[in-house]
Amino acid sequence: MLRLNLFITLSLCVLAATTVATSASTVIITVPATAPTESPTYTDDKNFQKAIIDTHNLFRNEHNASALGWNDTLAKFGANWTIACEFNHSHGAYGENLAKGYPNASAAVTAWGDERKKYDFSKAAFSEATGHFTQVVWKTTKTVGCGRKDCGNSSSRSWYVVCEYYPRGNIIDHFAENVQAQTKRPSGHIQGAKNPAVRVRGFGLAETM
């Protein structure tokens, strides 16, 4: 009997939203995002690559997964996808994580990894709330490559990050062996990813292969 293996594409996007402040009166003021100093993890290729790899591997080490290597083919794919500044998935052949609005590349990856706080290891299944995390630590994934682009304007920077993974993760019926519980204490994570204004959106898509 032919057995169909179901795959889930990476289906979540993380977006840092603007802040809304309310005064004591009835006036509501929308506070625009400020223009922070440009992070070298965005403006310099080597710093960007190092931040992406190091932060991924901090989480992978804590979840008993081997270190990822950098893949230039994946990076080119991710970079091409950022060009239009459209915050949507490519539906390509790779695993994919998206983030926008974080102060540096490490903070974006940390936001994905921090979804582990919501992951139910006893169920070992896909969830839209934790899909970034499960791809970050997926054991059989070996390489990652990412692109980025400033999709803001002259007064407000908004860096868009697209990471591609190979082999891709989030495969139905394979979560238990690929997403393992944390075995080590967190160490060296970049601060700044925890943002009370972050919102998550996405969808799940299953395909037969």
TrEMBL record:
Keywords: Signal. The keyword Oxidoreductase does not apply. Residues 47-173 form the SCP domain. One of its GO terms (cellular component) is extracellular region. It holds the Pfam family CAP. This is SCP domain-containing protein. Residues 1-24 form the signal peptide. It comes from Trichoglossum hirsutum. The lineage of its organism: Eukaryota, Fungi, Dikarya, Ascomycota, Pezizomycotina.
